[in-house]
């Protein structure tokens, strides 16, 4: 079926389609990071608390995580082009809502809507790549996709700093969301004209009940981590978290019932019987727990402690992005030869990079953006060594018939981990900064990030033993 779709369009057209869908993926990735450098101005203008600032980042990831599998299945039911166009339109409109927000809570709601619409847009990107590139060009197409993923974060920081600094039209921080308006319209117009409609997959069904329970459970677990500090960690905060844990347990039971009735659950529970895969998911959780939160912590330190202007704060991450891309281009071939060893080496480099940043902040009272940019290089190279081949290594034990379910579970885990990391590390940073100093907060957060990466190493080694036993 995929071969048939690829054969219906000429070679040049499919590369134009690649450019369109990757542009949408890029827009999603940029918006995961573009908010960071605008946090101080958002806090000042909206009167948003530190907890609300964390939530602006985390809720975007939670909304996306809980519906990404559902979005993929909607593409199977109605066709990837239809769902992609609706997803881009929704993402564009909710971006405008973010820019129009008049309070911290309204911005959080708008970011939740933005994340959920992204869950309909983004899954169609990989689905389209799989359909249009079944031949030797697949490697090049996915290399382009991977490079765009790596550049999205750094572009988000740099673009956010530039837009806040230029203050175009007097919009200030709001322009970081308004910019999605024209970009989204261009993507919609191009996709409507060039993107082919893929065949629908008969028999595909939705598990909206499971998605809703998962969302409610995650909000109840992660939400108190975001806002507990504002209410002095009152007893009801812990009760809500316990309720969230109970909902997640209920989610697993509900998914088993859906599967028993012959339905298509959000999570393919048979995958949880694969010990290597489960340990790999644990490693994925630890890695992404430390990924997005790392950028948040560095941004908070630069802007709230060192008073680095938004544009300079954004540009600090450009050398890191370059190191990330270089590492990514070399890590794939190395991972095919050496498997998890490459990932472990990357994690060790990340820990070394975190140590270098901590040493820099300890020795230099107020490090300049240039010095910080140099210190970030090692961590960026380590991230690139891990992130590019991580999915392939973790999914290697999954049977081909379960590849789609495994990929969905992998993607959901990355976003949940990122949201949890933002909640926990943000709380740690603000608590230590309030009771000590920004430098103490940075060192404490870096130590926690190091423990998370060390946990990733331990789980990767454990996964390696499980793979060896299975072989």
TrEMBL record:
A GO CC annotation given for this chain = membrane
Asked whether the keyword Transmembrane is assigned, the reply is: yes
Superkingdom: Bacteria
Which spans are transmembrane here? 17-39, 51-71, 83-102, 108-133, 142-164, 176-194, 206-227, 233-255, 276-298, 310-328, 340-364, 370-395, 416-434, 440-460
SUPFAM superfamilies membership? MFS general substrate transporter
Q: Which InterPro entries match?
A: MFS, MFS_dom, MFS_trans_sf
- Provide this UniProt record's keywords sorted from A to Z: Membrane, Transmembrane, Transmembrane helix
Give the record's membrane topology: Multi-pass membrane protein
Location of the Major facilitator superfamily (MFS) profile domain: 17-471
Name where it's found. Membrane
- Keyword Transmembrane helix among UniProt keywords: yes
Q: Which GO terms describe its molecular function?
A: transmembrane transporter activity
Which CDD domains does this chain map to?
MFS_MMR_MDR_like
UniProt protein name = MFS transporter
The scientific name of the source species is: Rhodopseudomonas palustris (strain ATCC BAA-98 / CGA009)
């Amino acid at each position: 079926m995929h071969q048939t779709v690829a054969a219906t369009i000429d070679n040049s057209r499919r590369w134009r389609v690649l450019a369109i869908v990757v542009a949408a993926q890029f827009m999603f990735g940029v918006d995961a990071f573009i908010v960071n450098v605008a946090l101080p101005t958002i806090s000042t203008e909206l009167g948003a608390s530190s907890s609300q600032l964390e939530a602006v980042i985390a809720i975007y990831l939670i909304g996306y995580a809980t519906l990404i599998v559902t979005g993929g299945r909607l593409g199977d039911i109605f066709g990837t082009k239809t769902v992609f166009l609706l997803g881009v339109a929704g993402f564009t409109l909710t971006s405008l809502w973010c820019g129009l927000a008049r309070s911290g809570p309204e911005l959080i709601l708008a970011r939740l809507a933005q994340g959920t619409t992204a869950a309909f847009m983004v899954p169609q990107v990989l689905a389209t790549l799989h359909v249009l590139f079944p031949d030797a060009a697949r490697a090049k197409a996915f290399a382009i996709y991977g490079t765009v993923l790596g550049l999205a974060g750094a572009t988000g920081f740099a673009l956010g700093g530039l837009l806040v600094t230029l203050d175009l039209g007097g919009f200030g921080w709001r322009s970081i969301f308004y910019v999605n308006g024209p970009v989204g319209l261009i993507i919609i117009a191009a996709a409507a004209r060039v993107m082919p409609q893929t065949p629908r997959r008969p028999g595909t069904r939705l598990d909206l009940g499971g998605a809703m329970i998962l969302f409610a459970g995650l909000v109840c677990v992660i939400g108190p981590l975001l806002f507990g500090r504002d209410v002095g960690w009152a007893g009801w905060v812990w009760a809500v978290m316990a309720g969230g844990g109970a909902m997640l347990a209920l989610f697993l039971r509900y998914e088993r019932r859906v599967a028993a009735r012959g339905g298509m659950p959000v999570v393919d529970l048979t995958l949880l019987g694969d010990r290597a895969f489960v340990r790999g998911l644990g490693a994925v959780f630890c890695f992404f727990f430390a990924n997005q939160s790392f950028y948040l912590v560095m941004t908070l330190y630069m802007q709230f402690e060192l008073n680095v202007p938004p544009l300079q704060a954004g540009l600090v991450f450009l050398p890191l992005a370059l190191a990330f891309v270089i590492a990514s281009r070399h890590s794939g071939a190395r991972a095919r030869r050496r498997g998890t060893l490459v990932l472990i080496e990357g994690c060790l480099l990340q820990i070394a990079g975190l140590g270098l940043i901590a040493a820099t902040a300890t020795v230099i009272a107020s490090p300049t953006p240039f010095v910080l940019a140099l210190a970030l290089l090692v961590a960026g190279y380590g991230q690139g060594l891990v992130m590019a081949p991580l999915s392939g290594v973790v999914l290697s034990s999954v049977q081909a018939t379960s590849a789609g379910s495994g990929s969905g579970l992998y993607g959901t885990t990355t976003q949940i981990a990122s949201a949890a990391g933002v909640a926990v590390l943000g709380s740690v940073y603000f608590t230590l900064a309030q009771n000590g100093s920004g430098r103490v907060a940075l060192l404490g957060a870096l130590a926690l990030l190091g423990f998370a990466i060390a946990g990733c190493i331990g789980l990767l080694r454990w996964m390696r033993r499980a793979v060896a036993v299975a072989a």
